[in-house]
Write a structure and sequence with these properties.
alpha/beta; Rossmann fold; 28 helices; about 45% helix; nucleotide-binding; signal recognition particle binding; bacterial flagellum protein export; transport
Length: about 775
C-alpha cells in the first residue's frame, strides 16, 4: 500500500487532487491543517495478490520502505512546525521590550488576547478585564477567567425537572444547523426516560425535500408518531389529538435570521393553543457575528422569548467561544450540546465547566488565524512606563508607618505597603473591613457589596479552582448579655484552603431564654439551621459549584438536604455501615483499605506563628487518602449508598497519624479521594475558626449592634473569619508588625488580642484615608 501526500488551499481543492491522482476509490488515511492549507494522506487499497507476477512480488518487498520514509518525513515536519511555533512565541515576547530590551506581555493584554483567541467577543473580554482582581499572575488570571465564565454561563439546571414537567418544545433556527437530527436525539432521550407512549414528533417543514420522511423513519425506529402540519389549524388539531402525550417535539422550517418569516414562524407557534417553548439551535462552527444576529432575530421575532438553546456541531467547531459568548450575552440557557451525527449517543446535557474547559483546550491546541497574536498586540499596545506614585498614597503610608512603627518608619514604609496591599485584597479581610465600615458609619466608605454572598461570589473566580466550600458550624458565646447563646454561621472556603468570609450567620439562645423572649432556640436547632443555611446559600450563590462541609452533629445530610446537593459530612469512626454487604464500623473499614499520598496540610504560618525552630513551631502535615463505597442502614427503608473517604493526617511530633472519616454525595468523577481527604483535613482544622468568631464577639464594643443583634453577629462572624485567615495564611505574616503596632505598646499579639488589633487597624486606615 503506497501512501501519497497532497496539500491544497482548501478541503475541496485537496480532495480534487486526490481524485485526479488516485481515482474515486482512494482511501483517506489522515488529514490536518498546515500553514499552506490542508494536508491529506491518501492511498489506493490494492486487491489481494493472488496471481501476482514475480516481478511485482519482488518490487513489493521494498514497498513498506516508502510509507515508513513518508511517515518519518511527516513526523519531522510536525516537529519542525512545533519548534517554529515555540520560536515565534519567544520572538513575540521579545517585541514587548522594544528598544529598551526584552519584556513581557502585560497581564491584561495577554488575557484579552487569550479570550479573543478562544472566540469570545471584544465586548465580553473588556467587561471581564474591568473586573479582573489585582495582584494576579498570568496563571491565576486565566484560572479567574475560567471560573468567571463557568459562573456566568447559563445552562439547564436539571434535565429531570425539564422532562418531568413535559410540554411542547419547538426547535427553531437557521437552515443547516441540525434541527431535525437534534430533534431525533432529543426524542430518543425522552423515550428512554418517559416511554414511547408519552412522546410524539411534529414537523412544520414543508419546504425541504424529505424532511417528513426523515422524521417518520426516526419515529418508526423509536415507535412514536411523527406527523406533518401545514398551518395553524393543523397544528392546533395535531396538538389536540396528542394532548394525552406528555412531551411533544416540533421540528420547524429552517429560516434565515434576515428573513421576515422568522416573526411569522414565532406567531404560528405562539398561537398553537398550548404553550410552546422554543429552543434555539445554533451551530458552534458559525462566526460570532452570525450567531449574535441569529440570537437577536429569533429572540425578538414575535411572541414569547426563546426558553434556551442547543449547541450543535461541537465536533466541527475549531473555536467554541462564539457560541458560549452568545449564550452568555443573550442569557440563553444551554440545554444540550451535540458532538456528532449518531442518534441518540451524540447528545449530552450541557455542563458549564466542561464547555469552558473545552473552549480553553481548543485554544491551546491550535493557533488562531483570525485573532491577534502576541506580536500583533505588542505592536499595537506598547508597555507604558511606570506611572508616577500617588502623593496621597505616599502620605498615607508615611503616616501609618510612623503610627504603627514609631522610630523606624523609614525602613517600615516599604514593608508596610506590601503588607497592606495583601490585607486590602484578601477576601476575608475585605469582607470584615466592609462590615466594619458599613456599621461604623465611615463617611467616605466606598459602597460595599450588597450582601456577603455577593462578595463571596466575586472572590470565587480568583480564589477557587473548581468548587466553593461552605463549612457549617457554631461557637458558644460568653459574656453577661449572651451567656448560653451560640453563634451559628457558614464559613466560606476556597478549594485551595483559603477563607473567603462568613455568610448566613445567626444567634441561637437556650430553650428557656428563647421561650421567654420568642427567639430561636439552641436546643435541636443546629441541624435545622444547617439545612436552612444550605438552602439560602444555594439561592444566593446559584450557578456557583458549592459543596457543604457538615459535622456529625448536624444530622444525616442524606435525609435533610435536597437531592442533588453536594456535601461532605465528617463522621465518627464508630458509625456502623454496610461494606460488601457486611455490617462493620468505619474504623474497621479504614484499617482494611490502602492509602495513597494526598498532599500536605500547610502549617499555620500567619501572624500568630512562632519563629521557625522555636518551641511550638508547627510543620506541614502529610495527608494520606483512601475511598470506597458503603451503605448506611436506614430504619424502615433501604440502606443509603454513599462514598466513604478515609484520611490519615501525619503531623510532625505525633507518634501515630490521626484518622478522619467523611461520607459524601460526590462521585469520583466530580472529586477524587485525594481532594476529598484534603477537604476533610481542612474541615477538622477550620472548625476552630468558630472559636475565633466567639473571641471577635467579645472584642466588639457593647454599642455595636445593640439595637439589632444580627448586626453584632455579622460583625463577629466576619471579623473571626478574617482573624483565622490572618493566623493561618503564610502571606499574612507581613501583617504581624502592623497588628502589633496597633496594640498598646508592650502587649503581645495573641489569638485573644488579634480581633482588637484588627479593629484598631481598621480605624487607623480610615483616619489615614
Amino acid at each position: 500500500m503506497k501512501i501519497s501526500r497532497f496539500v491544497g488551499a482548501s478541503s475541496r481543492d485537496v480532495l480534487r487532487q486526490v481524485r485526479e491522482a488516485l481515482g474515486p476509490d482512494a482511501l483517506i488515511v489522515a488529514n490536518r491543517s498546515v500553514p499552506d492549507g490542508v494536508e491529506v494522506l491518501a492511498t489506493l487499497e490494492e486487491p489481494p495478490a493472488a496471481a501476482a507476477a514475480p516481478a511485482r512480488a519482488v518490487a513489493a518487498i521494498g514497498a513498506p520502505a516508502v510509507p515508513a520514509a513518508e511517515h518519518a518525513a511527516a513526523g519531522l515536519e510536525a516537529a519542525i512546525g512545533a519548534l517554529r511555533g515555540t520560536l515565534e512565541s519567544r520572538l513575540d515576547g521579545l517585541l514587548w521590550g522594544g528598544a529598551a530590551g526584552p519584556g513581557r506581555e502585560p497581564l491584561r493584554a495577554g488575557l484579552f488576547r487569550t479570550l479573543l483567541d478562544i472566540g469570545f467577543s471584544a465586548r465580553l473580554a473588556r467587561a471581564m478585564l474591568e473586573r479582573l482582581p489585582a495582584s494576579l499572575d498570568a496563571r491565576a488570571a486565566q484560572a479567574w477567567a475560567r471560573n468567571e465564565l463557568v459562573t456566568h454561563l447559563p445552562v439547564l439546571a436539571s434535565e429531570d425537572e425539564l422532562l418531568a414537567e413535559g410540554g411542547v418544545y419547538a426547535l427553531v433556527g437557521p437552515t443547516g444547523v441540525g434541527k431535525t437530527t437534534t430533534l431525533a436525539k432529543l426524542a430518543a432521550r425522552c423515550v428512554a426516560r418517559e416511554g414511547r407512549e408519552q412522546v410524539a414528533m411534529l414537523t412544520t417543514d414543508n419546504f425541504r425535500i424529505g424532511a417528513l420522511e426523515q422524521l417518520q423513519i426516526y419515529g418508526r425506529l423509536m415507535g412514536i408518531p411523527a406527523r406533518s402540519v401545514r398551518d395553524l389549524a393543523e397544528l392546533r388539531s395535531a396538538l389536540a389529538e396528542l394532548g394525552a402525550r406528555k412531551i411533544v417535539l416540533v421540528d420547524t422550517t429552517g429560516i434565515s435570521q434576515r428573513d421576515r418569516k422568522v416573526a411569522a414562524q414565532a406567531a404560528l407557534l405562539c398561537g398553537a393553543g398550548r404553550p410552546v417553548r422554543r429552543l434555539l439551535v445554533i451551530n458552534a462552527a458559525s462566526q460570532g457575528d452570525t450567531l449574535d444576529e441569529v440570537a437577536h432575530a429569533y429572540r425578538h421575532g414575535a411572541g414569547e422569548d426563546v426558553a434556551g438553546c442547543i449547541i450543535t456541531k461541537l465536533d466541527e467547531a475549531v473555536r467554541l467561544g462564539p457560541a458560549l459568548d452568545t449564550a452568555i450575552r443573550h442569557r440563553l440557557p444551554i440545554h444540550y450540546v451535540s458532538v456528532g451525527q449518531k442518534v441518540p449517543e451524540d447528545l449530552a446535557v450541557a455542563r458549564a465547566d466542561e464547555l469552558v474547559d473545552r473552549a480553553f483546550a481548543a485554544q491551546a491546541r491550535t493557533r488562531a488565524l483570525y485573532a491577534p497574536s502576541e506580536a500583533d498586540m505588542a505592536t499595537l499596545w506598547r508597555a507604558s512606563g511606570p506611572a508616577a506614585a500617588d502623593q496621597a498614597a505616599q502620605r498615607r503610608r508615611h503616616w501609618l508607618a510612623a503610627a504603627l512603627s514609631p522610630g523606624d518608619c523609614g525602613r517600615a514604609g516599604a514593608a508596610l505597603a506590601d503588607a497592606l496591599a495583601w490585607f486590602e485584597n484578601d477576601p476575608a479581610c475585605v469582607q470584615a473591613r466592609a462590615a466594619w465600615r458599613r456599621h461604623s458609619g465611615a463617611a467616605d466608605a466606598p459602597c460595599p457589596p450588597a450582601t456577603p454572598l455577593a462578595a463571596v461570589r466575586s472572590a470565587f473566580a480568583a480564589s477557587c479552582d473548581r468548587y466553593l466550600l461552605a463549612l457549617h458550624g457554631e461557637a458558644a458565646l460568653g459574656g453577661v448579655r449572651s451567656r448560653g447563646a451560640s453563634l451559628q454561621a457558614g464559613l466560606m472556603l476556597s478549594d485551595r484552603g483559603a477563607v473567603l468570609g462568613a455568610a448566613e450567620c445567626g444567634l441561637h439562645w437556650p430553650a428557656d431564654v428563647a421561650a421567654a423572649a420568642g427567639m430561636p432556640s439552641r436546643a435541636g436547632a443546629r441541624g435545622a439551621a444547617a439545612v436552612a443555611r444550605a438552602a439560602a446559600l444555594a439561592t444566593g450563590l446559584s450557578g456557583v459549584p458549592l459543596v457543604h462541609l457538615l459535622d456529625a452533629t448536624d444530622g444525616p445530610p442524606w435525609h435533610a438536604l435536597p437531592a442533588g446537593t453536594a456535601w461532605l459530612a465528617r463522621s465518627a469512626g464508630g458509625l456502623r455501615v454496610l461494606h460488601d454487604d457486611c455490617p462493620v464500623t468505619l474504623n474497621a473499614v479504614g484499617k482494611m483499605l490502602g492509602y495513597v499520598p494526598a498532599g500536605r496540610l500547610p502549617a499555620a504560618n500567619g501572624v500568630l506563628a512562632p519563629p521557625p525552630g522555636q518551641a511550638g513551631a508547627a510543620g506541614e502535615a502529610e495527608i494520606w487518602a483512601s475511598g470506597t463505597e458503603v451503605a448506611v442502614p436506614r430504619r424502615g427503608g433501604a440502606p443509603v449508598a454513599l462514598r466513604l473517604i478515609c484520611a490519615r493526617v501525619a503531623e510532625p511530633g505525633r507518634a501515630a497519624p490521626r484518622q478522619l472519616f467523611g461520607l459524601t454525595s460526590l462521585s469520583a468523577s466530580e472529586a477524587d479521594a485525594a481532594t476529598l481527604a484534603r477537604w476533610v483535613a481542612w474541615q477538622e482544622r477550620a472548625r476552630r475558626a468558630f472559636r475565633a468568631m466567639a473571641q471577635a464577639w467579645q472584642a466588639l464594643p457593647q454599642e455595636a449592634g445593640a439595637a439589632d443583634p444580627a448586626v453584632r453577629v455579622m460583625l463577629a462572624a466576619q471579623l473571626g473569619a478574617a482573624c483565622w485567615q490572618l493566623a493561618h495564611a503564610p502571606a499574612a505574616l507581613a501583617m504581624e508588625a502592623p497588628l502589633r503596632g496597633a496594640l498598646v505598646q508592650g502587649r503581645r499579639l495573641t489569638a485573644g488580642k488579634l480581633p482588637a488589633a484588627v479593629l484598631r487597624l481598621f480605624a487607623m486606615l480610615e483616619m489615614a484615608a
